[in-house]
Amino acid sequence: MRYRRGRHLMVAAALAGLGACARERPAEAVQASAYDSRFTLEKDDGGTLPGIDRATSPEVYFRVTLSDAPVGRRLRLTCAWLDPQGSVAAENAWETKTIDRATWPTHCRHRFGPAAAAGTWKVSMAIGGQTLATTSLEVR
Length: 140
Description:
Blueprint: H1 2-23, E1 33-40, E2 51-52, E3 59-67, E4 76-82, E5 88-95, E6 104-111, E7 119-127, E8 130-139
């Protein structure tokens, strides 16, 4: 009898652990996607920057709107800013606020100084290694 009770407790503990794992899905399991991405300065006028002048040291925002965002969850996102040679010049990592709607705006940012390489830069936003959006920006 004692063996059976102990076995039931082990099964109950295992099932409880599985339930906790299902609630805490890894970021890779998220099915969100990007349907809009664009570059702006801090003040967002709704448009997109075709390029920037590095001599003015602008802080550029890569704004991405996610669709099918997981309501009630927070997402861990990253951005990689690749210079014209394809090297990672900067990275951002952050966690969103708790998502309260399926269409969710988010952003990352980078300040380009006069020493930044001129040419076409690429920025990629990802979740758990899965790229959500990649866009190019001309830096003069």
